[in-house]
Amino acid sequence: MTGDDRLEESESGEPMTGEPVTDGGTAGADDVALDPWGSSTVSDYRKLFEQFGIEEVDEVLEDVPNPHYLMRRGVIFGHRDYRPVADALSEGEDAAVLSGFMPTGDPHIGHKLVFDEIIWHQQQGADAYGLIADLEANSARGMSWAEIDEHARSYLLSLLALGFDPEAGTLYRQSTNREVQDLAFDLGAEANFSEFQAIYGFDGETSVSHMQSVVTQMADILYPQLEEPKPTVIPVGPDQDPHVRLARDLAERTRYFKVSEAYASFELTDDERDLVADCYERLEPAEFDDDQLRCVHVADALEETPLSDLEVDAATLESVLTKLREAGMEPVRPRTRFSDRRATDEAFEALIDAVEGEKRVYESHVDAFDLEVADAEKLAREIELENGGHGFRPPSSIYHRFMTGLTGGKMSSSDPASHISLLDDPEDGYDKVKSATTGGRETAEEQREKGGRADECPVYELYAYLLAGDDDEFAKRVYDECVGGERLCGDCKEQAAQLMKEFLGDHQEKREEAAELLEDLDLDLESPRRR
């Protein structure tokens, strides 16, 4: 969970237009592979919606207070369960933002996206956390502690220079945060090697420390909720989504109770529950002998319905029929279920006492008939917290597009011309932009006639992602002038190069000002580990 720390592994998607992109990127591509440490490929961002359940950020944008320009322009293109965070920010309630940085090189303009996302959330009222993933850098990348220290300081300076408020936020390194390490140990009891093998492709050659760094990252993601559960967002590139999904799963596994809808005393899968719920809605209890809908009645109705009309497979139907037949004359009634995941005896008893109205108590669950699911979830969390549990909420995430390399294709740390470091001399930054590939035509005459291809231009991408700042009108004007043939590449690159030079100069001045602030922070800038 380390933001945009890899250049060579970042595959570019479709560059941005002056308007938010809603189609997810390059049409027609189908190559998607997400690997937090390997070669992540995202040729079609729409595939992330289909394959991994990432949602389009446009769906929640209207509920986000003062959305960041990266959201407005579609650079932040997707999210996972971001609405609770947006609602909390809108209503002035507690929320948190956290992202980490693996100090394997100099901070670059890709990192600035993540820095900005953290800082914007902090400015909207969220508790902000920035961490140095030094354990991951050592275990997964083989970085020495001396190298890690050098780069860690540089990341922190840029984060502070861009506006992170250390008095209102939290900065730490994994290796010296004992609370994170203790939480990682607890979370490790809920995960296993087979799971890591399936998610990350780990095998017999994977070091134990690398596996340990994964549970440390899970602890990082949940760390903002150690004192109290709150909506928490993790801003990352899509290559980090495997970490987010695992963290969400572990947050649920550590909960004392699972809250769900149920219709009888036995457990049903989601598909089975949908079948029973449909029968409950459409069958009339008055049609049966005792005016009450029972499990056998639902079984009879399902057997009389053609399989093609049920939208389930034969195995699912057979399973639910078996459960219904075994339950016999038990009434089918909707209820809210508290399933015991890992509750203490005291917590389970406290839950039973706290559930008001009609209820049924079983060995491993409690069914409440007068409680809505949302209220039940709130009650379950309260009981858990009162009895020593964490009550974690599943963390949310937002995803930004990878930046295109200045030479076209993907950015590469082995090709300095393809990317701009935040430590580059301003003149070098100017020269890199001036030498960058563009989406222009072969000749100025053809450009004026057909217009430029801003959607294929790394230089326009610099405007949309960084150089236009919060000025949407400027970003759109550059785009419109390009595709309309009014803007030629030479003038466009000159303007972009000047803006980049100014940005780097200003940023590096602010880094110098932040150096004293960094020294005054209660933060370990040098690792106590063997160098």
From TrEMBL:
Family: Belongs to the class-I aminoacyl-tRNA synthetase family.
Gene source species: Natrarchaeobaculum sulfurireducens
Cellular-component GO terms for this entry: cytoplasm
Region annotated Disordered, chain positions: 1-35, 413-453
Identification of the protein by name: Tryptophan--tRNA ligase
Pfam family, one: tRNA-synt_1b
Keywords tagged on the record: Aminoacyl-tRNA synthetase, ATP-binding, Cytoplasm, Ligase, Nucleotide-binding, Protein biosynthesis
Gene3D superfamilies for the chain: HUPs, Tyrosyl-Transfer RNA Synthetase
EC number: 6.1.1.2
Highest taxon above the source species: Archaea
PANTHER family reported in the protein's UniProt record: TRYPTOPHAN--TRNA LIGASE (PTHR10055:SF5), TRYPTOPHANYL-TRNA SYNTHETASE (PTHR10055)
Motif ('HIGH' region): 103-111
InterPro entries listed in its UniProt record: aa-tRNA-synth_Ic (IPR002305), Rossmann-like_a/b/a_fold (IPR014729), Trp-tRNA-ligase (IPR002306), Tryptophan-tRNA-ligase_arc (IPR020653)
Enzyme class of the recorded protein, top EC level: ligase
Motif 'KMSKS' region, residue range(s) on this chain: 410-414
Subcellular location per the Swiss-Prot or TrEMBL entry: Cytoplasm
MF terms in GO: ATP binding; tryptophan-tRNA ligase activity
Bias kind Basic and acidic residues: ranges: 442-453
NCBIfam families, per database record: PRK12285.1-3, PRK12285.1-5
Biased composition (Acidic residues): 1-12
Function: Catalyzes the attachment of tryptophan to tRNA(Trp).
